[in-house]
Design goal:
CATH architecture: Sandwich
Radius of gyration: 19 Å
CATH class: Mainly Beta
Number of strands: 8
Order of helices and strands: HEEEEEEEE
Largest sheet: 4 strands, antiparallel
Number of domains: 1
Number of helices: 1
Strand content: 35-45%
Oligomer: single chain
């Protein structure tokens, strides 16, 4: 029995690692500017990519029906050919490391789905707060999706 224990333990640990979600993490300095909802020239572009998923954010301050928001809606592409579930979180900080705004969302993607947008991910902030944002932290989680 003792001879099989390392093999069984390795199989159990290896299987649980294969089921663990993929994770893409990125953080850094940023300067967000005000622009229109489709103004990619004024946007700060943030790309998080793995072999399975690519998430592209075009981040900017904008007016949205009378409210000032950060446009964070990403384009998500499935590169794997298999259904995937994607969840993302992105947070924005000032020079003291204090949180200014954050947002999150998730989606199920078909195996060949490209450029999916996940609704209106538009955290509302006071207009003057946009200039205070100087850094971000983002994470994307990727797990196996459901067949459609």
């Amino acid at each position: 029995m003792k001879n099989y224990l390392p093999a069984v333990a390795g199989l159990v640990i290896g299987s649980s690692l294969l089921a663990a979600p993929g994770r893409i993490v990125k953080s850094g300095k940023c300067t967000l500017r005000e622009g229109g909802p489709f103004d990619r020239k004024r946007a700060f572009t943030l790309v998080l990519k793995s072999r399975d998923i690519q998430v592209v954010f075009s981040l900017r301050g904008q007016n949205f029906f009378g409210r000032f928001v950060i446009g964070t809606t990403p384009k998500i592409s499935n590169l794997s050919g298999k259904p995937k579930h994607v969840a993302y979180n992105i947070a924005f900080f000032d020079q003291n490391g204090d949180l200014v705004a954050c947002t999150s969302s998730s989606a199920d993607l078909g195996g060949d789905q490209k450029d999916l947008q996940t609704g209106s991910n538009l955290p509302e902030i006071p207009r003057g707060s946009l200039q205070k944002i100087c850094s971000y932290q983002a994470v994307v989680y990727v797990t196996e999706g459901k067949k459609r």
